[in-house]
Amino acid sequence: MFLRQTFRYSSIRRLNSTLRGPVIGINFGFTNSSVAILEERKAKVLKNDEGSFTTPSVVSFTKNGGGGGECLVGAPALRQAVLNSQNTVFNIKRLIGRKFDDKEVQDFIKEFPNKIVKSPNGDDVLIEIQGKLYSPQQITSFILIKLKEMTENYLNKKVGDAIITVPNYFDYSQKQALKQAGKFANLRILRFVPDSVAAAFGYGLDTYGESNKIIAVCNLNGGSFEYSVLELKNYVYEIVSNKYDTCLSGEAFNNFIVNYFVSEFKRENGIDLNKDSIAIQRLREAAEKAKCKLSNSTQTEIILPNIIADTNGELKHFQITLTRSKFEQLTSELTKRIVETCQQRKEEIGQVLLVGGMTRMPKIRNIVEEVFKKEIFTSQLEEGAVAIGAVYLGVFFGDINYFDNRRTSKNKIIKMASQKMFIGERNIDYGNEKECAKLLRGPVIGINFGFTNSSVAILEERKAKVLKNDEGSFTTPSVVSFTKNGGGGGECLVGAPALRQAVLNSQNTVFNVKRLIGRKFDDKEVQDFIKQFPNKIVKSPNGDDVLIEIQGKLYSPQQITSFILIKLKEMTENYLNKKVGDAIITVPNYFDYSQKQALKLAGELAGMKILRFVPDSVAAAFGYGLDRYWRGAVCNLNGGSFEFSVLKLRYFDYEIDSNKYDTCLSGEAFNNVIVNYFVYEFKRENGIDLNMDSIAKQRLREAAEKAKCELSNSTQTEIILPNIIADTNGELKHFQIILTRSKFEQLTLNLTQRFVEICQQTKEKIKPEVEQPSLDNEIVSQNREEDLPSAGFDRVLLVGGMTRIPMASQKMFIGERNRDEEDAAKLFWEAIAIYVKEYYSSLHIDIRSRNAIKGLGYFALRHTDRGIPHGHSAIYLSDDIPKRGACWVFEGEHERLCKAAFNFFKNFLFINKKKVWSKLKPYVLGKKLVTEEKEDLINKDFQKLKFKRISTRKRNGMGKYKLKKYFLFKAN
């Protein structure tokens, strides 16, 4: 039996426990590791400095300093692998706790790039790096220290205890070696949890279906494949069967791809890449990326420029297209072994759980479904599920100080009248019999056509949903490319496949077409852009429009844009399985009539009708919930421009008070500064100007973009580009540099100063309006030294990927930040849904119910009282909208419910409090559960409540009154 009966899983979820800690849960994996904590009784997987939930289980020592070279862990160590493979350690989990003469160790030595020797005092394994010997425990401790430091930085306190997951087949010596590694990292390992059990807890399988059942866990990760059968009885797991194969892993799949790449390159060029360590490492990285992409798309293209030089010194490029069917054919032997392993006790299995990154492969999911004839259980956060299970189990094993399992007596609880939903029974809207709820119809899609990336969203079950593309990403690069073969009839690629063409096919690849759409050839912006544009741009013969020449054929910006819109349209149609004809597109505030008309023409070429253009700042304000405040500022710094807009909410609609923009201030401008720095440093060290080589320049651009993103989360990053160029003697040169955040901020100081200037100009322009606080501007943020003064703004919103850069966000700080942790695209598209609904029905959906819709599934409806154009609100259960009219809805226990109701109704003078109380009373008090004394006290409290007027009334021209402020009760 795995768990003690006294610590059943039900206690953590159903009882309030006083948790002692912190105890962390660590998933120490073959290829990646992760760490989780308990925060407010919920497990949370922590992000590392790179902003990722997983940290590569890789340790590397820099070349400088001999044996005292700097020790790198995680992504920085992984980047070292190409040029420093002999000092980089992978898959240390395969060696820990094993003997030198073990078959697994001897097999691993053949593929291990480091020198592995036998311990002088026994038969243990030692790894020689830069003349120094390290045990697997020491290497493992470096990874544990990294995870421990991540947790301590997040919690701002020391961490000493941990639960670590291990494969079911780990023996005593391997666990003891892991425990010793924990000691080296100053961690006390409280318990080792089998991966399969931790995964079952992390995915919450014990909360679904029957309490007694048989569960199969198929764990295919980077280092092994495990098939475990678990029996769940009364929330207690028992491992009844386990089979494993350490030679069947994600690494094995990679090796098949690499061997295929090597054979194809040798067939075409007569060169064996196995003899070049740098080339083979680049192929390994490309194989891993290709494998991941083929989980979402049917094919992917791999392009590795300057992979090797031939005997004449000529540089060779590696370029190949790998289809999913070819990948499945190459690895068919491995998938057959999975089927053979999963045959054990398959008739008894009630649920099937897939764990590990390799289980995202469609072929593997299909064969597992065929074996068990059951639906596969999986989760969105697969990377952290095992760590989550570990930290939950840490609560059971000694982390609970006290929990109260006594029954609560009836006189200590207040039960609501309905346990399913807290909702009234009225069939019509309060105060307006003619207004009633209607169903939403569709589809109308929302498109964010950006300078560098685009995305598309739909309304699904009354909620905005951003769709993923074939690569599994929410954003699609706004890039179009034409393959070289076939002349003007070359294949047209859009998105990530087109972006990959840029290195070797830049002259046929179009970026930033949004800069050209709707503009004239003689415009200053177009002439400035031509200097950086790799394609040939010419003037239209019949006018002054812009045309782009590609492979002898002329394309207008509208045509190029239509290819991107077609891609987004096809994504939506494939998801909905129906045709899409209408769309709403966001545009910058400064777009003029000709630019909008050009976009409308692009939509027609794509077979879509553009219903409306929405300003970026307004859509973003709605999406982020800024519409709850009377005056807001939106700082939008994206890949193509910078906009600073001041918005004012007047009668539930936004007006743009002021707008300043700079099309030369963008993410692209930041990239150019980094690229120029790279070129300068390489020329200073090697005497070669990389600007003269188009392939090298494009590789630097891609590296600059990645470095910029990484510096948003970490203080420094290392850029390594092997074989960047060959010198006059034919010797290949590598580009390697460390870029710190401070250096990056120093290089881009002029750009950040321009942010502040634009914001200051806008603030000065509206200064007379905001100097005196008013009811429209009740919140006045405190000014901060060295930051832009914030007087007059209730909220400031940062939009665009570039605002993630710490320096940019600090300089643009104006009061309280309003950034959500989720992807900006998701929030952005919730705004589009509000506009889309205008074309569905006349349903009055209050835009300020965004948080309620997203978190609790509630709509807030606006109700109109006779003679009052702008009345009060009520919360509405979204799933119940088609069934009934509006009604009062509150959520919470008795005392909180009463308080919320009182605070809500005191703001409305025209409401008859006796009528409201008579309607609300049954749902506030419950039925036959409140003593008469308690009920009398509540009645007295309500009668004492004074309805003070806190909103001013403003007379309009028709002699009626309007409520200037709009109050919305937000469910707790």
TrEMBL record:
MF terms (GO), sorted A to Z: ATP binding; ATP-dependent protein folding chaperone
Alphabetized UniProt keyword annotations: ATP-binding, Nucleotide-binding
InterPro entries (UniProt xref): ATPase_NBD, Hsp_70_fam
Superkingdom classification of source: Eukaryota
Keyword Cell inner membrane: no
PANTHER family: HEAT SHOCK PROTEIN 70KDA (PTHR19375)
Family, per entry: Belongs to the heat shock protein 70 family.
Name of the featured protein: Uncharacterized protein
UniProt organism field: Meloidogyne incognita (Southern root-knot nematode worm)
